[in-house]
Amino acid sequence: LHLHYVQACQNLSQPENPFIARVLQEADKNDDISTEGITLKLAGNYHLVPVPRVTDDDLGVLVSILGQAAFVTGLDLAYNVLTDAGAKTMATFLQENSTLRYLNLMFNDIGTSGAELIAGALHRNESLVHLRMTGNKIGNQGGMFFASMLKMNSTLEKLDLGDCDVGLQCLVAIAIALTQNKSLKAINLNRPLLSNQQEETTVHIARMLTSNSSLVELHLGKHGMKNFGVERLCEALYQNSSLRYLDLSCNNITCDGVKFLGELLKKNQTLEILDLNANRIEDVGAIYLSEALLTWNRSLQALSIVSNNITGKGLVALAHTMQFNTQLSHIYIWGNEFDRSTCVEFSELIETGRLKPGCTDVAPYEVDGKVFLAELSHGLAKHRYWAPRCAAVAPGAANASLDIVPVSE
């Protein structure tokens, strides 16, 4: 790879990017290439050493040598300076390439026209399984191109359109497309730009969930969702037996909305991860959840209630639930109001081994004979915006998807 890259730079009169050259040299030393395939990690946010970010011209040289490299199955180009011109190069590559399974373009400078080209390439591409467009300002129109792509494409399994400034029409179009699409397993629609407060998008997404049987993971963070929207979602989920990960973080859900979730959990036996981070469910909401999990639900594995204005009463109720419900293995509670009993209950859960240190975001410590809880940097979204260079954590612990959706990266 490195030799071909040097030759291609000379042929195209393009200066070498030392970061790309180093990654390709490392890839050349990899012995598992022929059997497993590799992901070239060219993310521009390399924390250990400052790296020259990948430009549109750099990408042009790179894809010219990847055409013959069938063993490259993944490409991580996050946090670089690719624009619509780079998106055009990538779209051409996707139309011609039949081995790339994972493509990460998050937080580049791709706009609406770049989104149109990449979505257009996926009308015919039959290899890409996982695409991340997070943080590219493709806007509502760019999102619409991906919505129409979902009606045609039957191989994509994970699509990340979080923080992409999509709007109302795009979300409605995606919901409609997913009533027909049978291949997509996970979609991230976090932080759309919604001007009205009517929760139309939630109603459309709920309607989609009644007929969709393939979606496993759904992110609806920062949708301005209130209790009305949660009620619509819960009504739909009584008829859905495929969704296993529901992310409702950073919304306006109160204890009344959680009452509907509690009732749903009593009947639903497929949901495995529920993210309620940064809502306002308070003690009453926490007790609704603990009641459902104590005697009825035996499917939920992970619960995040970070920053929900819960005091000791609600937290202790959830700690007691964990002693009886052995299926619930991950719980995240930081950002609430810890009292003495909360600290004691959770430190006991950790010390007895019921709650493993990698499966929660608190750790007990003692001062003057009193137990307190310190924060750990764990959470359901720990690796949503960055990925560790080495396999420092077990895949299932404190990770985004708990290995629910197997994809190439």
TrEMBL record:
Keywords: Repeat. It comes from the Eukaryota. The keyword Repeat applies. Gene3D superfamilies: Ribonuclease Inhibitor. The keyword Repeat applies. This is LRC34 protein. It comes from Dicrurus megarhynchus.
